[in-house]
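Journal club prep — side note

Before the paper discussion, L.F. wants everyone to see what a predicted structure for a comparable chain looks like in token form. Sequence:
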Amino acid sequence: MEVAVAERQGDRNTLSPPFVPAHNPKTPDITSALAIKQGNLFLLTETDGNVSAGEHVYGLYFHDCRFLSQASLCVDDIRPVLLYAAAEETNRIRSVLSNPDLPREGGPMVYKQSLAITREITISDCLYLRIEVRNGTANPIATKITLGFGSEFDDIFTIRGNPPEQRGTLQPPGFAAGTLTLRYDGADKHIRTTTIRFDPLPDSCDDATATYHLELAPQTAAMLQGTIHVTDQQPPAEPRRRAEQHPVHAHAPWHERTEHGKEKIGTTTVKAGDRQLARLLDRSFDDLRMLTTLQRGDLFFAAGIPWFVALFGRDSCITALQMLPYEPRIAATTLHVLATYQGTEERPERDEEPGKILHELRIGEQANLHEVPFTPYYGTIDATPLWLLLLGEYLRWTADFALLEHLQPNVDAALQWIARYGDSDGDGFIEYRRKAGKGLRNQGWKDSGNSIVRRDGTLAEPPIALVEVQGYVYRAKQLLAAAYRHRGDEQRAATLEQEAGDLQRRFDPAFWMPDRQMYALALEQEEKRQVGVVASNPGQALWCGIAPPEHAAPVRSALMTPEMWSGWGVRTLSAAEHAYNPIDYQVGSIWPHDNALIGIGLKRYNFAEDAASIFTGLCEAAVHFPESRLPEVFAGYDRHAFQAPVEYPLACSPQAWAAGALPGLLWTLLGLEPDAFTHTLRVVRPHLPAWLSWVEVHGLRLADALLDLRWERSDDYTTVDLLQKTGDPRIVIE
């Protein structure tokens, strides 16, 4: 996701300054940052758990605002030496630090590693800080510990490089009754405060720095603790739906407890015959649990830390799709939440239109003051068809006609939006053109300003019809037609089938490039000229099944050439293209969620070995990243160029649809094809990678039935056995 807008003015190749710069020069590389989150409160720290003073992105965030920009620890005014630090749980950071040599005037030096400092930071409904300072020597040590705090209460868009047009009043720090208070009276009439309570009380607290003078006997320790609360006090006449004043834990219906008391996602469990894969899947599910957010009564997966801790339409739909076999309640909740914000009128300043599903919702100061359009913002061409597609897939797993009936007005509005606004010129394809002055230039999943490029490297011009989005519409209408037919609504089913068939017949002649044996990235301008680069987007068209079989094989070949396939994954843009840049956001980098959808598409057209190669590449890439966590995006360098994948410096990690990539592609390799309408689960050509001997899935839900299944690979074949079932589902193995 990108919020950069580049508008051509005058000379066709001259770009005006973007609304939010693609890169803020004051924002450091965050690839080694530690991130924890609980509910709608999250913390991003430096490698050692510190948040130093200065210009950076680290800090404690709530409601799109940074409530702490400094939370530092020093020993005798010197930063301690890092020995160990990790986010050991999704809401807890632990670090082990020690002192460097500490010269003393008139006394013996305190030699390095005399002090062992253990710091534990935990997020619950607030932030808890626990510091143990231990003297590990045979001599007494006197030392000074300082804990520095600070905040400018910057909006997330300010940190990303969009200066505010208005600012409120930053109050001076106040210390009274053992509590340090930081306060900002916002220009939006919100009063934002951070309070730090100390135990024991510091010896002094000046200018937001708490100082402790410790006298440590040999082999003894001192314990310092702090509790940090944040508050967003809103004015009584808040025009939008009121948000929580304090952080709240997201108690999702799909959060379950293990027998050991640990919270997990859903009742479905996955076991694998490869320990590394089992750890990667655990990481994926833990990250999604971590990203679960409750805000203003809405339950959703925050799209990614730190930039996108907010509700996003596209990301929410794709993540729910990835998780459908494991927990269908995620999809039901996502459908409800996004329907709540469905567009109701034409408001060009927000790119809103009746029936359209939102792109992004923000609740920080710049949003409240309408300095950014995300209140919500609707500049997305694909969230609406993806919402319909998610509903169709959800019904395949659940046959939940009650939900379909409840959402029928939203479905009608979304389909009408596709017909009237999505396809504004009536040519049968949906395309986008930005209307909001502060909106996004590009409105597909590749939404950076330079992502939709021609062969000569210049930018495509709107209106732009993306290849994969036509696939989304096609798949959504097919799925909904099947659901309506099973519900007995033949007229709706026939209409949708006819529309899907018409779209498929128009699609191939318009997008196919005979000279490159590949689909074009997009069609541009009123003439619908092909944007003729080789890019990853057609792989997602395969996912939706819109391509005829005779063109699936050439698309597969194009995706798996050395110019596209790096060994770790499929690049967003071919290395042979003029605009290719392996370290740019979306013109040569590798996105795990994109690869997962491409893999699903390849498997749909019987290229199972290629799908398994993508799964393998992502698994092998993941172990090289911190916490074995697939990030939002990484660089597109060839695998043989370096020993590990090259990181993208500002990637979100964790990121929701990256976390869902491996689970989503796995269930496709297992061959799961549900038909809850007839209580049938088809297992179609399952294919485990050669290195994976077996997989078990327990508690797989199809409508009201539960299934336990085991897959085993023997030689070149994958077999499946039913271990247990409740209910009366029919299992068909093909």
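L.F.'s comment for the group: Residues 255-669 form a domain with the Glycosyltransferase fold (CATH 1.50.10.10). Keep this in mind when we get to the figures.
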